TrEMBL record:
PANTHER family: OSMC_OHR FAMILY PROTEIN, OSMOTICALLY INDUCIBLE FAMILY PROTEIN. Transmembrane segments: none annotated. Pfam families: OsmC. It comes from the Bacteria. InterPro entries: KH_dom-like_a/b, OsmC/Ohr_fam, OsmC/Ohrsf, OsmC_Ohr_Peroxiredoxin. This is OsmC family protein. It comes from Maribacter aquimaris.
Length: 148
C-alpha cells in the first residue's frame, strides 16, 4: 500500500484557543472544530475539544471503524455498536503522558449463538486498530455484548 497523508491545519484565535480544520474535508460544511487547553491546566478553557480529548477520540473512533470493517468481512450481523472511552493523563518522570485509554464497546446482536463471534471480532478490531498500534499508551478494552 502506498503511504497516505492526512492534513490538519491549526490556527490560534485567542488566549489558549484555536481552530482546527482539514483541507481534505469539505470546509463549506464547517467541519472545523475549536480546540483549547483543557481546564485541568492553567488558563485552560472548559467546553472545548482538547488534544487529550482528540487523542482519546482517535483511539475510540479507530476501534469503531476497524470493527465495522472486520464485522463486515466476518459476516457478523449486529444491530448497534457504541463505545465509551476514557483517556488517563498522568505525570510520569516530570512529563505529562496519556498513559491509558479504556474502551468500553457495546455491541448488540440478535441471538446468543453469535456472542463468541462478536467477542472475537471485537478482539481482532482492538488488535488491528492502527491508532492503538501507533501509540505507547496502554489500551484496555471492556466489551459488553447485548442480545436484542
Amino acid at each position: 500500500m502506498e503511504p497516505h497523508f492526512f492534513n490538519v491545519d491549526v490556527n490560534w484565535k485567542k488566549d489558549r484557543m484555536g481552530v482546527m480544520c482539514s483541507p481534505e474535508l469539505n470546509l463549506e460544511t464547517n467541519n472545523c472544530i475549536e480546540i483549547a487547553t483543557p481546564p485541568e491546566f492553567p488558563k485552560g478553557m472548559p467546553g472545548k475539544w482538547s488534544p487529550e480529548h482528540l487523542f482519546t477520540a482517535a483511539v475510540n473512533s479507530c476501534l469503531m471503524t476497524t470493527f465495522l470493517a472486520i464485522a463486515e468481512n466476518s459476516k457478523l450481523e449486529f444491530s448497534s455498536f457504541s463505545c465509551k472511552s476514557k483517556g488517563k493523563m498522568e505525570r510520569v518522570e516530570g512529563k505529562y503522558l496519556m498513559t491509558e485509554i479504556v474502551l468500553e464497546p457495546s455491541v448488540t446482536i440478535s441471538d446468543e449463538q453469535y456472542r463468541g463471534k462478536a467477542e472475537k471480532v471485537l478482539q481482532k478490531s482492538e488488535a488491528a486498530c492502527l491508532i492503538s498500534n501507533s501509540i505507547k499508551s496502554k489500551i484496555t478494552m471492556v466489551p459488553t455484548i447485548h442480545i436484542a
